[in-house]
Design brief:
The protein is α/β, with parallel strands linked by helices. Helix content is about 45%, strand content about 15%. It has helices at about 20-30, 50-60, 75-80, 110-120, 135-145, 150-180, 180-190; strands at about 10-15, 35-40, 65-70, 85-90, 130. The chain binds ligand C2R. Ligand C2R binds near residues 18, 43, 71 and 73. Catalyzes the conversion of N5-carboxyaminoimidazole ribonucleotide (N5-CAIR) to 4-carboxy-5-aminoimidazole ribonucleotide (CAIR).
């Protein structure tokens, strides 16, 4: 089996508003050449789609589901209760660009509502969660799960870590050379 032929990851989100945040999960998977299938499914607005999606995910052979939702974020937990496929939840700080008034664009609790909704699952139906809006981490975590099965992904993850290490060292060298004030000035001007 290959990870680049058929989708092994299902990405779902409660609303099109979430695509602004959730596309970072897709970017992480794309960087590693992992196929994913992306859909909008809402436990609240399309409740009958939940069991259908869970069946679809199992039939397709998805190994991981990444589920993003904001506010009263029931989607990750409800999907998890319909399937044995591991679910990674992404709590989203709602940003609804369909609303004209800035006052109502954001969720009242800045993503904490979604974080708690996703993490506080009852015993017996676990969902893991990344930080608020950290969809890229959900993508990376999915890759780590898949790497148990595909050694090539493990190698790619190690390279990714090395790159991260090098990029921090490069910035540190520059900070040392310029001094913090000039470094920060330069960085904030970007
Ligand atoms: P709209 O911008 O469409 O009003 O959505 C979505 O994830 C989104 O962040 C606002 C927020 O509602 C969330 N939503 C859920 C669910 N369905 C939609 N949390 C669900 O089933 O959990």
């Amino acid at each position: 089996m290959s990870y680049s032929k058929n989708p092994l990851v299902g990405i779902i989100m409660g609303s099109s508003s979430d695509s602004k945040v959730m596309h970072s999960a897709a970017i992480a998977l794309d960087e590693f050449g992992i196929k994913h299938e992306d859909q909008i499914v809402s436990a609240h607005r399309t409740p009958t789609r939940l069991p259908d999606y869970a069946k679809h995910a199992e039939k397709q052979g998805f190994k991981v589901i990444i589920a993003g939702a904001g506010g009263s974020a029931h989607l990750p937990g409800m999907i998890a209760s319909h399937t044995t496929i591991p679910v990674i939840g992404v709590p989203i700080m709602v940003y609804n660009d369909k609303i004209n008034s800035d006052k109502f664009k954001f969720s009242a609790f800045g993503g904490l509502d979604a974080l708690l909704s996703i993490s506080e699952m009852p015993t017996g139906s676990p969902v893991v969660t990344v930080g608020v809006n950290k969809a890229a981490n959900a993508g990376l975590y999915a890759i780590k799960i898949l790497a148990n099965e595909f050694p090539e992904l493990k190698t790619k993850l190690k390279k990714h870590k090395e790159m991260q290490h090098k990029s921090v060292l490069k910035e540190s060298d520059e900070m040392k050379k310029l001094g913090l004030v000039r470094f920060a000035d330069k960085k904030l001007k970007k």
